[in-house]
């Protein structure tokens, strides 16, 4: 009976991971924390929100377009 339960738990975790589930990380430091590409950040100049992938980073600040960096 215990083997069946363990089997179903393992299978459930594998299915969860297969379909894009993310397990929480334990003991992450500030350096390990990373912004994902689809995270929204605010432009320093015009205060609009853009994704990290689309943003322009200058001196550690996020901007939405080249005009805002001037």
Number of strands: 4
Portion in helices: 25-40%
Residue windows where pLDDT falls under 50 for at least 5 positions: none
What would the average pLDDT be, to the nearest integer? 83
Strand order of the largest sheet: 1-2
Radius of gyration: 20 Å
Q: H/E element string?
A: HEEEEH
Q: Please report the distance between the alpha carbons of the first and last residues.
A: 67 Å
**Which term fits the overall shape?**
rod-shaped
Topology:
Layout: H1 2-18, E1 40-42, E2 49-51, E3 56-58, E4 61-63, H2 66-69
Outline the structure in words.
It is rod-shaped, with a radius of gyration of 20 Å. A hairpin with a 6-residue loop joins β1 and β2. The termini are far apart. The chain contains two helices and four strands, in the order αββββα. The chain has 70 residues and is of the alpha+beta class. The model has no long low-confidence stretch (mean pLDDT 83). Helices cover 30% and strands 17% of the residues. The protein has one domain.
Question: What would a concise description of this structure say?
Answer:
The chain has 70 residues and is an alpha+beta fold.
Kindly list the characteristics that best describe this protein.
alpha+beta; 70 residues; two-stranded antiparallel sheet; 2 helices; 4 strands; two-stranded antiparallel ribbon; 30% helix
């Amino acid at each position: 009976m215990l083997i069946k339960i363990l089997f179903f738990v393992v299978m459930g975790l594998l299915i969860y991971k297969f379909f894009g589930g993310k397990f929480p990380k334990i003991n992450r430091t500030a350096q390990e924390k990373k912004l994902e590409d689809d995270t929204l950040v605010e432009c320093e100049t015009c205060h609009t929100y853009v994704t990290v992938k689309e943003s322009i980073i200058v001196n550690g600040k996020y901007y939405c377009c080249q005009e805002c960096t001037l």
